[in-house]
Amino acid sequence: MTTYTEDSAPHPLDVALGSRIRLRRRELGLSQEQLARQVGITFQQVQKYEHGTNRVSFSRLVEIAQALHCGVMDIVGDLDQSKASSLFSRHVARLNEPGAAELLEAYSAIQSPKHRRAILNLAKQLAEGKASQLYEIESEPAR
């Protein structure tokens, strides 16, 4: 198995593993620099691991897991299950979007199913570019 797919992009499993490392690092509130220091590498190397650009060796994965106060299986999980993995990898990648984890935390804190549904509907409308229909936003002419 090669690191890159036919179009020279990182292998999806390397990207998925990197996303899980990034997710756990952010969960702990660590910067890439802090993780790098704990593992004894540069923050650029952490970036490359997190983006799947460079593969993580098993020994380095063990070091990273220790620095992230978890086990290797907590990071790797079910990545070897190809069908579930591709869908799961996309979801994990989405959680790495700026603000996504905070949005999920806030959403989880909402107790009312009605309010959760309203937030979900708003997000869908924003994603489809139909937010102006919700609020009938019109731009005012410049003065």
What would your notes on this structure say?
The protein is built from nine helices and no strands. Helix 1 (12-27) packs across helix 3 and helix 1 crosses helix 6 (82-95). With 143 residues, it is mostly helical. The chain is globular, with a radius of gyration of 19 Å. The chain folds into two domains: 12-98, Orthogonal Bundle (434 Repressor (Amino-terminal Domain)), CATH 1.10.260; 110-143, no CATH class. The chain has helices at residues 12-27, 32-39, 43-51, 58-67, 72-76, 82-95, 100-109, 113-127, 131-135.
Strand residue content: under 5%
Structural class by helix and strand composition: mainly alpha
How many distinct beta strands?
A: 0
Average pLDDT for all residues: 82
CATH architecture of the largest domain: Orthogonal Bundle
Keywords:
143 residues; single chain; 434 Repressor (Amino-terminal Domain); 9 helices; 2 domains; disordered N terminus; mainly alpha
